[in-house]
Amino acid sequence: MAWNEATALARIYKLKGEAPNFDVQRFEDYFRLYQADMAMRAAQKQPSTPPLFSLPRSKAVVVDTVQIYVGITNYDEFRLEEGRETEASHERAMRLLHLYYSAADRAIETSAAQRVDFHNGRVHAVVLEPGKQGVTRDTLAQAFAFIEDFQRVADAANRELAKSEFSARFRIGVDVGTCVAINNGTGCEQEPMFLGSAANHAAKLAFGKEPGVYVSDRVRALLKLQEVGLSNEFVRLSDADIALNTARQDASGRMVFGVQDRQVYTQDVVASWKEEIRRGEFPDFTDPSFSFSYREPPLSKIDYSELSPSRSIRMPLVSMYADLSGYTDYIDRAVASGGIRDAVRALHVIRSEFQNVVEKDFGGRKVRFIGDCIHALLAEGSRTETDKRQSVSTATQCAGGLHSSFGLCKRVLGNLESLGLAIGLELGPTPISRIGIRGDRSVRVASSIATTRSEQLQRDCEDSGVKLGPRALRVAPVALEDLLDQEGYAASLDYDDVAVCLSVAPAAVASPNYARAHVPSHVPQPRAHFKLK
User: 246 and 144 in contact (C-beta within 8 Å)?
Assistant: First the structure.
């Protein structure tokens, strides 16, 4: 498998031609149509869906939001055993995520919040502002009510369902702002996304080891608290300030936000959960329920719908994070200037091509898109074991292919000069499964030290860098030393660089006839690739 310029260029032009001409709406206009659709579904006894969860792929909605990220600060305590990842420690970590993903969804079902995504040890939720004047203090209070409800349900579930095995500590980041909502998924693989600085900033606030609730200055201003500046935002919000803004009552004493009696609410949620376990509809958390098996590469053959706790994968592989640096500022400028349609069309093409490179060119498997970032898995090997060296070689070639395809996207789409592509790669044993509340609401997950470290490596990169982690570097082909520094970093890396360095011949270099048939005539023909003798 290899990247080929003519093939990639033809794909990109096809994607550009097929990209939706996005219908951009304000949330209040979208919401009127959504309410009518939900009323019709109710009359026909069809299941409802949360607002913006299953948007048509051709729609983009501009919405004011409260963005909430909930991270487990002591996650590594559960996925490591004496400092090592083992099958037993991964089984325990997956049960931990299964418990807390389920707790989050159960709290979401009775709150104003809706789930955006679960990712590793993080929950991403959002509360939507129905008004036209920006996020109000009332909408922010709904977000704090969800946070309180989630923590209560999570603590009770751990205590009563898991016999206090997990006792996770949470770090919660909250920001408010205008975002663009789109959806990249289909069927049971919905991928709602909120693009904008508020989502990114909430994620950064949730990133750290100290538990507590951390909010932006925009949130502090709504709460009428003293603003602290960017350098001091990582100061946790006091319990008193949270309590003052978690819920309110109307004149009759009824709760406006949250629930009237949180203790009774929590007991009811957990009692219902226990009944599902008794009926066999949900696993007993005190009884290990994850069963792992090796999956022969290529990983592109993985069908997430076939996975479950009892049918999970665990194997050595390379985790890759590839993030568009500068895209958040780009989308914020698009919102301000009215250029949303072009910005989301460009992202549609770029992400689709990135998935093509990962899955079609290098046999990897996308886990999910996280905003403007793709998380993917790659491996080479036999029916019984992973070839680690070849896996790192293929993953590095894939990173080069992503950079080369991104360069073509910028050339074809135009006006993307401000964007870069940062990529992190790490090797390690990784479990893959589908977990969470139930049915279609369950989510795919790949979570290990390798996945966490590759995400951090991507964050460490400059605008267009590639960085390999220490495990990947230990087994990487020696020839890659010509491209990487001692820390495993390259400031820029395209497919030609890697192919020449590894003496890898490109897969079926396209003939001029192929290029003429698939690429418009005004586009420069692909340059030749050379193999070292």
Answer: yes
Beta 59-72 vs 114-119: how paired, if at all?
unpaired
Residue 512 burial (C-beta neighbours within 10 Å; 0-12, 13-18, 19+): exposed
List, as one string, the DSSP characters of 159-174: HHHSTTS----EEEEE
**If you write DSSP's letter for every residue of 228-295 in order, what string do you get?**
--GGGTTSPPPHHHHHHHH--B-TTS-BSSS-S-HHHHHHHHHHHHHHHHHTTSS--TTS----EE--
CA 14, CA 16: separation in Å to the nearest integer? 5
Q: Which amino acid is at 466?
A: V
Asked whether the beta carbons of 169 and 209 are under 8 A apart, the reply is no
Judged by phi (left if over 0) then psi (alpha if -120 to 50, else beta), residue 439 lies in: left
Structure tokens at 509: 């270099």
Give the domains, in start order, of the chain with CATH numbers: 5-499 (3.30.70.1230)
Distance, in Å, from the CA atom of 383 to the CA atom of 369, rounded to the nearest integer, reads 29
How far is Cα 424 from Cα 421, in angstroms, rounded to an integer? 10
8: tokens are: 């990639």
User: How are beta strands 212-215 and 170-183 bridged, if at all?
Assistant: parallel
CA distance to 110, 344, 449, per residue, from 349 (Å): 36, 9, 31
373, β-bridge pairs: 323, 370
Query: What is the phi-psi region of residue 463: left when phi exceeds 0, alpha when psi lies from -120 to 50, beta otherwise?
Result: alpha
> For residues 70 and 84, is the Cβ–Cβ distance under 8 A?
no
Please answer whether residues 329 and 200 qualify as being in contact, where contact means their C-beta atoms are separated by less than 8 angstroms: no
Per-residue pLDDT tens digits for 28-75: 999 988 889 889 988 988 878 888 877 888 999 999 999 999 999 999
Q: What is the pTM of this model?
A: 0.90
Task: Record the tokens describing residue 277, joined without a space.
Answer: 């376990």
Q: Residue 135 is which amino acid?
A: V
Rounded Cα–Cα distance for residues 302 and 300 (Å): 5
Which 3 state secondary structure label does DSSP give 146? helix
Radius of gyration of the chain (CA): 24
> At 413, is the secondary structure helix, strand, or coil?
helix
pLDDT in tens, 426-461: 999 999 999 988 667 789 999 999 999 999 999 999
